[in-house]
Amino acid sequence: MKFFIDTANLADIREAQEMGVLDGVTTNPSLMAKEGITGKDNVMRHYKQICDIVEGDVSAEVISVKYEEMIKEGDELAELDENIVVKIPMTADGVKAIKYFSEKGIRTNCTLIFSAGQALVAAKAGASFVSPFVGRLDDISTDGMALIEQIVTIFTNYGITTEVLAASVRHPMHIIQCAEIGADVMTAPLSVIKALLNHPLTDSGLAKFLADHEKANLPVKQ
Ligand code: E4P
User: Fold this and answer.
1) Which atom of ligand 1 is nearest to the CA of 170?
2) Residue 160 burial by CB count (10 A; 0-12/13-18/19+): exposed, middle or buried?
3) Exposed, middle or buried by CB within 10 Å (0-12, 13-18, 19+), for 69?
4) Is the separation of the CB atoms in 113 and 130 below 8 Å?
5) Quick check: is 198 in a domain?
6) What is the DSSP string of 104-139?
7) What does it catalyze (predicted)?
8) pTM score, two decimals?
9) How many domains, the chain?
């Protein structure tokens, strides 16, 4: 399973890249706004900076909602770097735009997927990735992970090559469950990725190893 980081924060992206676990980045307009990135030039420069850090796919989301504007914006984003994946919302205009980009050989990530039907339509239109939002479904008492399982099953049934990118991942168990189900990609904030490293027995085991080493290496009294 590929690990993407879900942020527009350059320091977090650098840290994940240096950890050696990073396969790509996902951003969205909220994450860009959180970093204070405003205005088209700054947005474009920021995406380029992300592409310079990470060796992998970088999802850059269009702000436009009308087909003509979406394809213009997406074309400009795709020109920035070969690793840019144009992120398109699941709407009728969005699906049409996915078809346009797919025919042009530009990769897309269809975002805001909350049902298997939406995922299937996006895949048929030629999306490279579909992004079902696990955490936001859990938030409304709906099983987000069941949706990942349903989409993986459907895509497997028909040999659909669109990758299932589990988004809105909120905690380490979501990551493990995605891997068990066979999601192609998961995207999570750095804190959630780092939480995978933690185990109290690792901490206490290391403390004991170091204490034993220190005791055995005390200077010998003459
Ligand atoms: C990524 O592609 C999504 O935009 C993101 O994972 C949404 O996460 P959130 O539900 O935590 O905002």
Assistant:
1) 11
2) middle
3) middle
4) yes
5) yes
6) HT--EEEEEE-SHHHHHHHHHHT-SEEEEBHHHHHH
7) D-sedoheptulose 7-phosphate + D-glyceraldehyde 3-phosphate = D-erythrose 4-phosphate + beta-D-fructose 6-phosphate
8) 0.96
9) 1
Q: Is 87 a catalytic residue?
A: yes
Residue of 34, 40, 66, 87 with catalytic role = 87
Distance from the alpha carbon of residue 183 to the mean position of ligand 1, in angstroms: 16
Residue 137 vs residues 115, 140, 173, 176, 220: alpha-carbon distances, Å = 10, 5, 15, 18, 63
Residue 222 covered by a domain:
no
Ligand 1 pocket test, pick from 13, 130, 139, 168 with the greatest ligand atom count within 8 Å of Cβ, gives 168
**Plot region of 20 (φ>0 → left; ψ -120 to 50 → alpha; else → beta):** left
Q: Is 109 in the pocket of ligand 1 (CB under 6 A)?
A: no
Pair 107, 57: CB distance under 8 Å: yes
Q: What CATH number corresponds to the domain at position 59?
A: 3.20.20.70
- Residue 53 is part of which domain span? 2-217
